[in-house]
Amino acid sequence: MNVIEADGLCHGVWLPGRQRLDILRGVELAVAEGESVAITGRSGSGKTTLLALLGLLTPVGEGTLAIAGRNVTNLSDRNRALWRNEHIGFVFQSYSLVRHLSAYRNVELPLRYGEGLHYRQRAQRVESALDSVGLRDRARSKPRQLSGGEQQRVAIARALVRHPAVILADEPTGALDVDTASTVLRTLRTACRERRTTLVVVTHDPQVAQGMDRVVRLMDGRLA
Ligand SMILES: Nc1ncnc2c1ncn2[C@@H]1O[C@H](COP(=O)(O)OP(=O)(O)OP(=O)(O)O)[C@@H](O)[C@H]1O
Ligand SMILES: [Mg+2]
Fold it and tell me: How far is the CA of 181 from the centre of ligand 2 (A)?
């Protein structure tokens, strides 16, 4: 089954002076369950714009999109947000952890919205997610007590904790040195593979791209 199916996705914005900038001009992308894909492309080619569409942050203007078996093209803002919370996890370049909360509490946050899990089940989910990124013993640490790579692994655990069908990562290793980046990426890939989570990573780094099942390049608003 394809977890992501995008057909003819277009996206443009209006610039000052009634100028139209067409960022995406017919993106076709199908990603299977458990598959990992790297999206590359030069700066400004529309990678983040595409990820925002796939992640249901931006409504689809033109084209069609199905995520986790549902046609989401015409969903209302509210239903898009609900589907996003249930099926999509995000990892960004800046880890965006809550500073005053421990690693444990940061990972637990997404479980506090949506369907109510029991305290016990919540704890199990959080511990298993922290386990997946090798940080179970750092559960009590605050972000400032963790290295950059460790903070990003906490962010990965937070993305995993609701068992999403898809994880979307935008330059997840962009702020890390080369060695740390490769550890973090391996962690992300392994965790996704074990859980059969579909993974889409935007990256400039050829080494990151090489570790994925497939690499696609965004150019002139289309994927090649
Ligand atoms: N809301 C907006 N208004 C005007 N222009 C925008 C808007 N959003 C994106 N753009 C433009 O669209 C193009 C694609 O932006 P996007 O952020 O998707 O690129 P990117 O491939 O992620 O680049 P980078 O590798 O630098 O992160 C850029 O030229 C950007 O300036
Ligand atoms: Mg970007």
Answer: 17
Instruction: Report the domain count for the chain.
Output: 1
Residue 128 vs residues 63, 156, 194: alpha-carbon distances, Å: 38, 12, 12
Output the six-digit token pair for 92.
């960004």
pLDDT for 116: 77
Q: From residue 93, how far is each of 2, 42, 149, 206 by CA, in Å? A: 26, 17, 11, 17
Q: Is 63 in the pocket of ligand 1 (CB under 6 A)?
A: no
Query: Which ligand gives the minimal distance to the CA of 44?
Result: 1
Question: In which domain, by residue range, is 177 found?
Answer: 2-221
Beta strands in 116-220 (DSSP E): 166-170, 198-202, 214-219
Distance (Å, rounded) from C-alpha 131 to C-alpha 157?
Answer: 8
Cα separation, 92 vs 175, whole angstroms? 10
Q: What is the mean pLDDT of residues 87-102?
A: 94
Residue 87 three-state SS: helix
Please report which confidence band the pLDDT of residue 160 belongs to, taking 50, 70 and 90 as the band edges. very high
- The CATH number that applies at residue 215 is 3.40.50.300
Query: Which ligand gives the minimal distance to the CA of 19?
Result: 1
Retrieve residue 101's tokens.
Answer: 């909360």
| Atom 16 in ligand 1: residue holding the nearest Cα | 46
Q: How far is the CA of 11 from the centre of ligand 1 (A)?
A: 11
